[in-house]
Design brief:
Layout: H1 2-59
Length: about 60
């Protein structure tokens, strides 16, 4: 009877590790996505600024 309890505890621990790994993976992915989004927004702002400069120089 003791072996069954140990096996259940082992299975529960493995599920817990899997769940924790999944959560950490999801959080890491969210952080990476947010960082890439911020980089993209910064690049977009730089492009718009450069475009305005070029148009301004052409109009002179």
């Amino acid at each position: 009877m003791g072996m069954i309890g140990e096996e259940r505890a082992q299975v529960s621990f493995e599920y817990l590790l899997t769940a924790v790994f999944g959560i950490v993976l999801a959080i890491s992915a969210a952080i990476i996505i947010e960082t890439l989004r911020e980089i993209a927004l910064g690049a977009q702002a730089d492009i718009l600024s450069t475009r305005e400069e070029v148009i301004s120089n052409i109009m002179r």
